[in-house]
Design goal:
It is built from four helices and three strands; from the N terminus they run βαβαβαα. By secondary structure, the chain is an alpha/beta fold. The chain has a three-stranded parallel sheet with strand order 1-2-3, sandwiched between helices.
């Protein structure tokens, strides 16, 4: 069942590092990403690996660095509760 948590899409490890560090510097805005106040979407495996190596859970990972792939990954996570790239790897979708 979908929830009402907002999504944050991160496009590269350097962007992820900057955004996550910047949020920690703003005392009035500290979303708890590790406790799932947001769903995180990663553009590609490198960004996903960066996030998971820093103890963040990634809800969706796009297979290509484009808007369509990102939308498919998020849609799949919302509807199926799984990552789009996982569905492709298991052969559930082509």
């Amino acid at each position: 069942m979908p929830d009402d948590k907002p999504w944050l899409a991160l496009f590269s490890p350097s962007t992820a590092s900057y955004v996550l560090e910047a949020w920690q510097a703003v005392p009035t805005f500290r979303p708890n990403l590790r406790n799932r106040d947001f769903h995180l979407a990663a553009i590609g495996l490198t960004t996903k690996e960066y996030l998971t190596s820093h103890s963040y859970e990634v809800s969706a990972t796009s297979t290509n660095p484009d808007a369509e792939s990102l939308a498919e990954a998020i849609h799949s996570a919302v509807v199926h509760g799984t990552r789009f790239s996982d569905l492709i790897q298991t052969g559930e979708i082509a």
